[in-house]
Each structure stands twice: as structure tokens, then as C-alpha cells.
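Consider the following assembly input.
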Amino acid sequence: MSENASPAPLRVTVWNEFRHERKNPAVAAIYPNGIHECVAGVFRDANAAAGAGDAPEFAVRTATLDEPEHGLPPAVLDATDVLIWWGHEHHREVADEVVARVHARVLEGMGLVVLHSAHLSKIFKALMGTSCSLKWREANDKERLWVVNPAHAVAAGLPEYFELPAEEMYGEPFGIPEPDELVFVSWFTGGEVFRSGACWRRGGGRVFYFRPGHETYPTYHDANVRRVLLNAVRWARPAGVKLSARCPNTAPLEPLPVAA
Amino acid sequence: MSENASPAPLRVTVWNEFRHERKNPAVAAIYPNGIHECVAGVFRDANAAAGAGDAPEFAVRTATLDEPEHGLPPAVLDATDVLIWWGHEHHREVADEVVARVHARVLEGMGLVVLHSAHLSKIFKALMGTSCSLKWREANDKERLWVVNPAHAVAAGLPEYFELPAEEMYGEPFGIPEPDELVFVSWFTGGEVFRSGACWRRGGGRVFYFRPGHETYPTYHDANVRRVLLNAVRWARPAGVKLSARCPNTAPLEPLPVAA
Amino acid sequence: MSENASPAPLRVTVWNEFRHERKNPAVAAIYPNGIHECVAGVFRDANAAAGAGDAPEFAVRTATLDEPEHGLPPAVLDATDVLIWWGHEHHREVADEVVARVHARVLEGMGLVVLHSAHLSKIFKALMGTSCSLKWREANDKERLWVVNPAHAVAAGLPEYFELPAEEMYGEPFGIPEPDELVFVSWFTGGEVFRSGACWRRGGGRVFYFRPGHETYPTYHDANVRRVLLNAVRWARPAGVKLSARCPNTAPLEPLPVAA
Amino acid sequence: MSENASPAPLRVTVWNEFRHERKNPAVAAIYPNGIHECVAGVFRDANAAAGAGDAPEFAVRTATLDEPEHGLPPAVLDATDVLIWWGHEHHREVADEVVARVHARVLEGMGLVVLHSAHLSKIFKALMGTSCSLKWREANDKERLWVVNPAHAVAAGLPEYFELPAEEMYGEPFGIPEPDELVFVSWFTGGEVFRSGACWRRGGGRVFYFRPGHETYPTYHDANVRRVLLNAVRWARPAGVKLSARCPNTAPLEPLPVAA
């Protein structure tokens, strides 16, 4: 059998805080089933758009804060190739044990796509090692995302820039380690710029941060944003090896001099 | 007054677990006052070697695990420009609160030089976000450290390689993020290689990891190793700004369109 | 039709100086049809190993120094997705015009895999901007290549290290820009180390340098080396966009203030 | 004598095409003695601002296109620690031999600060290995440069952003290798963004690209711009070693097995 025929579907888990949508009617109007369901739809749509006889490219599930273990017990993470994370006001409610489990899975090889206000999530900060702080403003700025690395897989199929007619503003300095690869830089009407799409490798896992997605705007319905999510998950696909965090004691491969 | 005249001394704090030296006579024979005092001597020696009329380049203090707050209360960290960290078997005894305090100071701008088995220290792992795992062997391998970046400040004054006649072996893969700059790669008699000197920026702080220094060898008495420590501390000197981890809400700098 | 069904084959061109093999019987004994034919066989073998009904993954051709335009007229480069380059003693005979053509194609998106002594080829030096110098010795050192980034696509399917029983030695410092990703570091019997597998992005193209392959050793017959070549070509596959080197004059997207 | 007392002055050479100023009265009105003299003034001013008894920090000279060897004979380059380069419409007139000489000096350790339209200079393209292309517009956009890396030496003493009331626009994508460190990102009124301050290491030399400086605006009279130039030159100071481009044949450091 060829290496290319009928690969197993890429297993995507979309995690969402899922509180705004249940409390704020304005958010519920935009995301009636939650941001997670809207984002999960990116991958369901991709499956549906493929040919009838094709194996589905993705297997999608969702998980939310208020489920037991936040919907991320070991069995779910073990069956996840790429995890998408949206959180905002309740980062502290995410149990340290679950964060440690997600962290370990990223280092083993699981991909992670971190969205918008999850720049302050425990898992993103743990992977970056930095403050991940930034400036912000909720004032209906227009955001224009420029592709600074047009050959990057996360930019596949995008125009040279795309716009979101109204979004929360995030401004520099963004307290992150120098990205391994920078893909998007945003321009905001109010005068700021932001590194809106950035890539890092951590252990066996790939991490992509993507800026847009404030809950009061229909950002995850936008076709270009959905294309970025699709691209990012494909890019963050695990390499197929499972890295270990062990520190093994190993015998020499060459003869050592006899100790005195 | 000129910017260059009589700068304030660079304030170096050398932290050491300081347990081996008090339990193991073989270690005590090499480091009778502890590894921290031997390392602190690098900077005292540099002061002594300067001209008689010169202001001292360094102000050095030490701190150890069994002191209150591990010798690192806020006042000490606030008065530290570069912290050197040696730990080995008691990483878990370092209080999370102190680790968080050190971490915050690095992000603000304090330099950090991480030595040998401190690759598994809480603070190094927190800054890297990765496993920091590696292979190891205690078997008197000879280590030869090659300078792969001869123009780097950490390699100043060194020959193209230097040797340690006997050391613990550390082997790849080393579970770190891609270094911003790689300075040393080690060759070991037993057949392994290791990225032995590597640099990262995290927030306002510079982090340097340096491999050698197992407690049963006189590594920190070696002239080349001492030169690396001197260079690394100079390189990790803070920039003179204190970065904040706050996320300020900011007003627009340009007129925004009137919301509909 | 699905995006995944029957992709067009990846078009690989293997370039070789092809002088040693015609002058030195010892080299001809190892590579009777030239190094290029041995390397091209990696991709023919991969096609043959695939299922009978599968479309071939690769379309392979070769090109050599003494062909007109060194076998690389525009039509060949336009039909090349990834170019592999082996050169040694005749770098200066490669016409600047052809080098410029290859360079432009890499920036547009073509992948480039640079082998062994081609570290001093015009095209590699032009892409790196540095000396690409190193130490060397022909003395039958054993080389052991350690995988320092086990999750990297170029390391797929490899053990934690592999050995070449005899090879030319290359030693640090290697005069390259800091690699975007380092994959292999070599250990040599004679005491040196070398960054043996390194990745860079230049414009739309991906560049991989791979150290082994002196003409007097059967290196390109080695199964692990062949696996690296296969992986590297897959990794260097173009993104599917063709980058331009033009500097367009562009109209503003937002209203500008009226000039005074 | 101490290492810190009375260091030799940092030798800065400011290179300028110096054609616009002699042909275009509007440019001459802004830079009556040429852009080079205005930029050289940054370092003369710094010397003058130091204490009366202090040794000067800088020794400054200038060089221009129409001087013999463009003012850069070997003796001048050998006596240059950091070279600043402004060019625009006559890149092709710069002799390849002089470019090769500058290139070699950067790899040996000389710093290089590349200004504005010199993104297309032969020397910058040779060091980057890429197209260095970008979008542009001359339309009096306001430029706001955001500091994305506030702890970087090139940002010392700057506010979180600074503005140039009118400048030429440069827009992404900028065809450069991923910077080692990104310092500034610009916002333009017309809707674009640009990586306006970026650092790379090439061999022993440090390279800084700084975007502003179109000849028809008084940009190099701006206090913040002058601060960036001062910082950049200090940052690009050579390490004090002179790297070689030679590839030496070296004897083994460890016994090799006897060849069969």
C-alpha cells in the first residue's frame, strides 16, 4: 500500500471556554452553538467539500470548560492530533492538572492552535515562558491582516491581505519569544500594529497563535479566517513520532579510556 | 558626565543548591566553600584584575537552597542584574513562589545563566516551555567544547575549542526550543554530541545555558569555563528598561469611524 | 475532485558536477553512472515501492556540469520543484547566469537540497550570504549523525543516530547564518563536531544542507542517507505559490490626509 | 590597565550615494551637505555631548559613490568598525569589487547599518540572499514605528512608538530571511505595515536594516531616528575577533583507527 492512500483522518479537538455564549445574548446571536461549534464547522465543511468517495480529511470533536476535566481527559488528548484553544475570562479556572496534560501532549507532538484572548491562557504562557501581554481596546477598529510570509502553509490560498471590518484591537509589544516564523502582521484603524499570526516549535509539537476572534464579532464566520484555521491545523499536524520527556542514562558508543 | 564613566557595578547573584558539598567529601574536596563560592570567585577575580583606580565591574553575592526563601527574597532579586543557577537533585524543593519571582524578574530584564544539571530546574523549564530532557552518563568522558559562533560575546577570548579531561556526558536530543544563538557544541569520547552553550531572549531578559559542571569534577576551576561564565554574565546584562507584564487598555491614536 | 487525490508528481532534478566519476576509477567503482544517478535512484525506488495502482510520487531527472547550460536551461528549472546539488572542485565553472537562474527559482518557491562539498557552491553561498567555510580532513573518520530534532520531517523514520563507517571530516565553525532549524549534528572519531543537517527559508523556497557524501565513499548507497534525501525533498516541496521579486508601487487602502 | 578605561573610539563610516542632493534642490534644502553629513552628525553630536575630559566614543568619516572606489578602498574598510549605507537609484553603479570587499569585511566582523532604499543595494541583497523586495508609495503617509522588542539595544531610550509626519510608504511582504530579531514594525496611514527594524548576524558581522529615510523628507534630522542610528551603531560594534573565510585542512585530535 502506498504511503499516500487513505490516510487516517486528522483528529481535531476544538476547546472553548463557552461561557460568553451562554450569558451574553449578543454573543449567542453570533455563535448560537458556541464558538467551538462554529470553528469545528471549518473541518466539517472541508470534509463535505471533498469528493464523495474520499475518506474524510478530519475527525472533529469539541470540549468545553464546564465539562468534567474540561472535556480533556487523557483518552481525548491521546486521540487528538491538533487542539484548538479559545479562552478569555476564565483562564484561572482551567485546572493545572489539565494544563500539564495538554502541555505534555504538545511536547510529545500534538499541534496547538491558540486563538485570540487565549494569549493569556495557562497553556500558551506555559509553552512560551513569557508574559504574552499586549495592549488592547474594544472600539470597533477595522483590522487588516497582512501576509508577511506568502509561502507559508498557514497563508495558503489567502490574498495578500484580508480585512475584518470590526474587531478588538491588540497592540505591540506582544510579550512572546521571537517567533520561529511570522505569518501575519495586523494594521488597525486606531494606529496600532500586531504580530497576528506566529509559529513556534516546542518539543515535537507545533504551536500557532492567531489573533482575531473577539466574541462580540462574527470573526469565525469569515471565510479568510476559516481558511487560516484550516491551514493552521494542517500545518500543525504531528510528525508521527512521539517524543519522550525522559532523561535516559546511556552507555558509551565508543571505548572510554580506563579511569585512573 | 559621560555615559561611559564609572558605570554602576553589575550585580551578580550566584545561586547553588549547596547540598552535595555538605554531604559528599569528594565534592567538598573540590569545592570546599560550595560551587557558588567558586563561581562567585570568577567575578571577584575580574574585579581584582582590573586597574587599582578602576571602579569594580561586578558586585557579587550568593544564595543557596537552605537559606530562607532560598536566599532570594524580593529585595535580593530586585538588586540582581544577572542570576547564575546551579541545581541538581533538589529542583522540587525550590518553592514555586520563588520560581515565579525569578521568572518575573527575568521577563522584566534580569539575565539568567543556567548551569549543567539545572537544565531540569523549575526556572529553566518554565522559561523554555519544553522538557529540557537529554541523555546522560557518569563515566569520565572527555568533553571537547567547540565554538560554533566565534564572534559571539560568550566566546570572547576563547580558543577554537577547549577540553575538560573528565566530565559527565550529556547527549542529544536536548529538549529545548531552537536556540536564538548557538555558541558551543560538545564532543564526548563515548560518541555523543550536545548543544552545550545556547542563548534565548525571554521578555526583557537574556538566558544562557551552559552544560559543563558536574559536582564531582573541578570544572568551575577551569580557566576556559571561568572565561565563559564571565562572558555570559556580561552578555546577559540587562538593557536598562524594566518590562511590564501588564495588558493596558489603550485609546486610539487615530480617529476611528463612528460606530453604526 | 478532492485535493488529496492523485497529486501531480513532485518534480526532482538531481544536479552533479560529474567529473570525479569520469576521471577517478575509485569513484567510478562506487558510482558507475555518477552520483546523480545514485541519488536519482532514491526517488525511483520510492515510486517503485508504492502500490501498483498508485500514481508515482516523484518525476526525476538529472543534470550535469558539462551539459549545455549545465543541464539547467529555463525550461528545466521551470519544471523543477526541488533541485538537489552536488559539486566539489569546479564550482567556479558554473556560469553566473545559471546560478542567478537557480537563485531566482529558489526565491520563487523551488526547494534546494545542497550536498556535502557544495557548501562552497555559488548557489549555496549566494543564498546564505556567508562564507560557508569549515574545517576538513580526508582520513577515514567514522561519522555518527545525531538527530537533534526528532520531530522534524527530515528525520522521519530515522533512528536516534546513524553512522557512516568512513567519511571525510567537516568541522566547526561552519560559516552559515543561524539555521532556522537544526536537524543533525555529527560526531567524528578524530574529535570534531559539525552541524550536518540544517534548514533555511529563502523567499518562497526551502533550503536544506546535508553534510555527508564525499565521492570516494559509498555514502549515497547508505539506507539512512537515502532516507534523509527522500525526506528532505518532501520537506522542500514548494508551497504552491510563486513569489515575485518585483517592487510594486501601490495605491493607499485608506484615505490619506490632503498634502499641505 | 582595566578593560574598561578609555576604549579606542568606534570607527564609523557613513556611505551615501550623494546624487539626489546635488541634483534636486528640494533634497539639497533638507540635506545641504548630503545625507551622509547629516547622519555623521549623530556621532559627532554624541562625542560633543560627552564630558569634556572623556575620550570620544566615535571616530566618523564619510564616503560617497563618486569618490574613487566609492570612497571605500581597502584601507578605509580596514579602519571601519561599523559602516552605514544609504543608496537609492544607482545601486548598479557600485562596483562589484567594492561590494565584495564590503561583504568580506562584514563576514570578518564589521557591522553594517542599511538605510531605507538601500534594501535593494547590492551589499544588502548579497548578505540576505533574497529579493529584499517590497511595496512602496510616495504620498506623504504618516509613519508610526512601534517598538516590538523594547529590551533590544537598538530601542534604547525610545518611547513605545514614534512618528514621522510624512514619509514614503514601504509595505509587506518584505522579501527578507526571517530576522534574528525584529525591533520595529511600522504602521502607515494608507493601511500598510512593515518590518521597519530588523537584525541579522552574518559571519562575524551584525546587520541592521532601518526603513525610514526617503530623501525628500527631513527624516535624518528627527531626534528618534537619530537615536536609532546611534543605538544601531553601538549594537553593531564588532566583537573584536576577525573571522576567516578559509577552509583549513586539520589533523585529528583523537587517534583514528588504522585504515584497512
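The longest helix of chain C spans residues 35-49. Ask yourself how this observation constrains the way the partners meet.
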